[in-house]
Amino acid sequence: MSSRVKKLAWLSSLLVVSGSAALIAVAIVVDKNHPLSTLSPVGRQGREIAELINPIFIVAGVVFFLVQGAVLALWLRYRVSGSDTGDGEYGYYEDEEFPEQVHGNNRLEIAWTLVPTALLAVISVFTLIALFALDDVEASDEDLVVTVVGQQWWWEYQYHLDGDTTTPPDFVTANELVIPVGVDIPLDIKSRDVIHSFWIPKLNGKKDAVPGRSHDWVIQSEQTGRFRGQCTEFCGLSHGYMKMVAVVLTAEEFAEWRDNQMTPAEMPQGGTAAASGREIFAQQCASCHVVNGITSPADRGGEGTEPDGWDVYGEFNGADAGVYLDIDTLVAGAAPNLTHLMTRSTFAGSIFDLYLGAGEHLGYLDLPASGTLNRGELEAWIYNAPERKPADADNFRGMPSRTGLSPKDIDDLVAFLSTLD
Length: 421
Known about the structure:
By secondary structure, the protein is of the alpha+beta class. It folds into two domains: about 5-85 and about 105-135, Orthogonal Bundle (Helix Hairpins); about 145-420, Cupredoxins -  blue copper proteins (Immunoglobulin-like), CATH 2.60.40. Helix content is about 35%, strand content about 15%. It has helices at about 5-30, 45-80, 105-135, 250-260, 275-285, 360, 365-370, 375-385, 385-390, 405-415, and strands at about 145-150, 155-160, 170-175, 175-180, 185-190, 195-200, 205-210, 215-220, 225-230, 245-250, 345, 350-355. It has a five-stranded mixed beta sheet, with no helix packed on it. A hairpin with a 6-residue loop joins strand 6 and strand 7. Helix 1 (about 5-30) runs antiparallel to helix 2 (about 45-80) and helix 5 (about 275-285) packs across helix 10.
């Protein structure tokens, strides 16, 4: 390869890298519909973060192109053609062929030390301002507080309508955090097993969920809708499948949803497929899953046959309400509360839609009555969950398979689950 061709190849590579970086940056900024984008916030906290990082991205982009431009300018200014050996390869340089070597330039060295220092100092000031703003929680402790519990590999939400997280919650749900629009909702973030990290980027930044500790956080949205999130602390086999959804409703819709969530499930009518499914559920599922009003402590190997109430979340670990078993074991030993499963739009850690195409034409509260159940995916999940989502169910991490169930058993089980609205 000739020296001229090599130079052109080097220059082309530099331009391709610079152009690609620019295109990626533009794509990130323009793609406001990306589900995990921090650049299109819908809440107060998310906006504080965006207003901090957007100028930093611009400054970083300017610095990138200044540095790349300087490299290119230096290459063009001081390039030297080597002696051609005649076979298209570079030859060698005699000492007298090299340009004058300059070692050190005090003015330049001082400049490229002070300028970045000043730039980082300014960024630090605005970062601290943003951090203080994120810690400014306007909600009252007497209002709704949600205990967020991370476990392998899903999220649980315990709603305390009076703000007292030391007592059993008023109701419990999983995977989808439902909140009213325009209201700061305090979160009490915990873990039942290993370290997780709670992140719904359009609403706020990340907050770790650490076993044995409780971290305060707040979430708020100025728009109704569904906003996706992701666990961002590596937590085992299905870390990448540990997702969550924030559902933001109007105040009236939230009140209707809340009132429904507080009611226990009803026993299905005898002689129906749902009744048969309830029996299968009691035998196969109730040792982990709770359905308030139907399951009982005896289903989990304990004492008492009275149907579970919401106080089941206060009886496991004393004052640390809602935490199953001994957290020092780093094993959750818990499963999603299914009392109102059919009011949710996702399942299995929010990786599958519970209804077909529901987000395109149905309101959240209309799902149980008008949605088309994603029956195939739900039955496949029940039959062999580890095939759909990696798990270590033998060690109480993730859902075990139920491959011993017949097709009729699964049909009956789904018929029972379909009544949980």
